[in-house]
Amino acid sequence: MIDRIPIDAVGVQERVARLCTRSIKKESKLQALDLALRMMDLTTLEGSDSEGKVRQLCNKALHPYTELPNIPSVAAVCVYPNRVALAKSILKDSSISIASVATAFPSGMSSLQIKLDDVNYAVSEGADEIDMVISRGAFLSGEYARVYDEIAQIKEACGTAHLKVILETGELGSLENVRMASDLAMKAGADFIKTSTGKITPAATMPVVLVMLQAIRDFHVATGKKIGMKPAGGIRSSKQAIQYLVMVKETLGNDWLDPSLFRFGASSLANDVLMQWVKEKTGRYQSLNYFSND
Amino acid sequence: MANEQTNHPTSQATTMNSIPKTYKNYINGEFPRTESGRYYSVEALDGKHIANVGLSSKKDVRNAVQAARKAQATWAQKTAYNRGQIMYRIAEILSGRREQFINEMILLGYSQEAAELEINACIELIVYFAGWTDKIDQVFGSVNPVASDHFNFSRHEPVGVVGIISPETPSLLGMLGLLLPNMVAGNSQVIIASKQFPLPTCTFAEVLATSDVPAGTVNIITGLKSELIPPISQHMDVDVLVGDVSLDTEFRVLCEVESASNMKRVYFWESFISLDELNSSPNETISTCVHSLKDPYHILHVQEVKTTWHPISE
User: Fold this and answer.
1) Which of A111, A192, B121, B131 could form a disulfide with A228 if both were Cys (CB 3.0 to 4.6 A apart)?
2) Quick check: A236 and A269 in contact, CB under 8 A?
C-alpha cells in the first residue's frame, strides 16, 4: 500500500547545512519574525496546566506584547481537551484557533474507542484543530494498515475540525520510517503532519522536517492536495525558526509560507521572536525580564 | 632564561617563543575568535608589532551577556566560603604565572619595577577580596529593630549582570579593581578590556579558565570602546555598568543616558594610573591605587539589600 522510499541521510544533512547558511537580516528578518509569530501554535501541555495558566496563555496569544500594538496574534493555542472550553470562551471573538491534542496523547497507548471518544469530546468542547498521535508501537511492528485505519477513523470523527497527525519522529528510528509514516498519514486523510509531541527528545530536527516536507511535495505533485506541516518541540530561538522558513520556501515554495499550511508548535519560541522583534525596532538587545512567561 | 635560549638558536623553545599570538575573547569559559573577523595590532611604544587582538562587535557583546546571564545563578548559589576559595585560587595561579604577566607589561612599555609592583598588588588585591566573600553579610547585614512581632533582618544579594569598562592603565590592576568587588557580590560580568594594553587582561582569562571559576561568570572582550560601550550600555539584560573615572566624558554621558532604559546602576571608580606615573613613581602610585580599591563599599554598591520580616510569637 505504502512504498518504502530510501533516504540518503548524508545528503539530507548536507542540504540542511546548506540551507542554514542563509543570512536573513533587517527588513527580511522582520518579515520572517512576523510570519513566524502568525504561524505559531502557542502550546501548553503540562499535567500542571491550571485554568489560570490557560487563561494567561490565551491572553498572550491575543496580545503577544502590549507595548507594540502592531504585533500580530498567533495562529492557535494548543491545549489538552479539558481546557478547550475555557480557551474557546476567551478566544471566541478572535481569529485564533483552538487546537487540542487527543487520542491518548502523548503515548497513544489506548483502545481505538477511547481515542475516538477523546476526539469527540475535544471537538464537542469547541476545538478547531485536533492533534492526534499515531500508534508508534503498531507502526514499528509493521501493522501499517492498523495505523492507517486509525487515522482514517479519527479524521472522520473530527468532522470539520482540521486533523494534524503527530508522527513522533523521535521514536521512529530512521528517516525511511519518517517518510513512510508521512506518506501513510497523508493518504489516510491528515490535513497536517506534525513531527513530535514535545515529550520525547529528539523532538523536531531539521533533517526530519526536510524529509517530511519532501513527502508533502511529492504528495502534492501526485494528488494536487496541499498538506500542512508542523514542526513541534525543541524550536526555541528565532534563528531556528527562520531557518525552518527558509527550508519550507526552498522545498515547497511560497504557498506554504502561510499559517494555513505551516505552523510552529512551541512555547518559549514566542518570547524569543518578540525579543528579536523589539531588538530590530529599537536596536537594543532585550532581556527576558520584560516579557511575560505565559 | 633568555640567555639560555640565545645559546641554542636552533632549539624548539626559541622557535616556539617567537610564534605570533592572536589573543581571543573569553566567553562562556571558551576562547572564541571575535564574530566580526576583525583584528588590530597591539604595538610596543617603539611601534613594534607585539600581537593581534580581536576587534569585537556588538554580537560578541550579545554572546557575552547571554553567557553571563546564564552563569549568574551558578556563581551566586555557590557558598560564600567556596567563592572565597575559588578567588584565592585565582591569586595562586596568577602568582604562578607572574613572569608571563611581567613580560607582557614590559613589552607594553612598563619598567621592570612597575610591572613587578603591579602584579604583586594584583595578587594582594585578589586575596583581600577573596576574604570578603563570607564576611560581607556578617559585617554589613543587620538585624533591625521593629515595633511588631517580627524578626526583621537585612542581607545583601547580587544585582545580576555587570558590564565593566576597564581603564587603559594600569593594565591588570585597573581591571581587577573593578572586577573583584563584583565577583564577591555574586554578580557575573562582561569586561571590555583596555584597548591599548589588552594583553594582561587577555592572559588573565587563561588564569580564570584554570581556576574553577564557572564558565560565563567572567567574560572578556577586546576592541574599541566606541564600538562596545553603546551595545553594552543599551543592553536591557545588563544591570550595572562599572567604569573608571578616567573614561572620556563622552562615554560617561553615553553610559548614563543609555542606562536609563532599564535603570542600570552606573558607577565610576578610581583605578586609573597613567603609564608615565607608573614608570616614574611606581611604588607611590600603585600603593595609593590599591588603597583606594580596597573598599568593601564597592561590593555593597553592586548588591541589593533584601529585608525579611519573619513572624515570631511571644
Assistant:
1) A192
2) yes
B55 φ, ψ (degrees, to nearest 5): -105, 85
**pLDDT tops 50 at residue B62:** yes
Chain A, nearest residue to B59 by Cα: A285
Residue B48 pLDDT class (50, 70, 90 cuts)? confident
For residue A73, pLDDT beyond 70: yes
Q: Does A7 map to a domain?
A: no
Instruction: Choose the CATH number for B24-311 among 3.40.50.10140, 3.30.1390.10, 3.40.50.300, 3.40.605.10.
Output: 3.40.605.10
Interface contact A283-B234, CB threshold 8 A: yes
- Confidence at residue A189, expressed as pLDDT on a 0 to 100 scale: 95
Mean pLDDT of A94-106: 94
| Structural domain includes residue A12 | no
Looking at residue B63, its amino acid is N
**B237 to chain A: closest CA residue:** A287
| Euclidean distance between CA atoms B120 and B94, whole angstroms | 10
Q: Model confidence over A112-146: pLDDT tens digits?
A: 999 999 999 999 999 999 999 999 999 999 999 99
B216 Ramachandran zone, left/alpha/beta (phi>0; psi -120 to 50): left
Interface of A with B in 268-287 (CB under 8 A): 283-287
* b/e code B55-71 from CB counts within 10 Å (16+ = b): bbbbebbbbbbbbbbeb
List of residues 6+ apart from B279 with CB closer than 8 A: B109, B110, B111, B114
Residue ranges covered by each domain of chain B? 24-311
CA distances from A136 to A85, A112, A144, B58 (A): 29, 14, 10, 47
Q: Judge: A286–B261 Cβ closer than 8 Å, yes or no.
A: no
**Number of folded domains in chain A?**
1
ipTM surpassing 0.90: no
Strands (DSSP E) contained in A199-263 are 228-230
Q: Nearest 5°: phi and psi at A12?
A: -60, -45
pLDDT at B17: 56
Output the domain CATH number for residue A88.
3.20.20.70
CB-based contacts of A290, cutoff 8 Å, min separation 6: B236, B262
B18 pLDDT band (50/70/90 cuts)?
low
Residue at A88 is within a domain = yes
Over chain A, what is the mean pLDDT? 94
Q: How confident is the model at residue B10 (pLDDT cuts 50, 70, 90)?
A: very low
Query: Per the domain annotation, does A8 fall within a domain?
Result: no
Q: Which domain holds residue A221?
A: 17-290
Catalytic residue among A131, A183, A191, A272: A131
Alpha-carbon distance of B24 to A221, in angstroms, equals 52
Q: What is the pLDDT of residues B191-240, one digit of tens each?
A: 999 999 999 999 999 999 999 999 999 999 999 999 999 999 999 999 99
Interchain contact, B236 vs A286, CB within 8 Å: yes
CA distance from start to end of chain A:
44
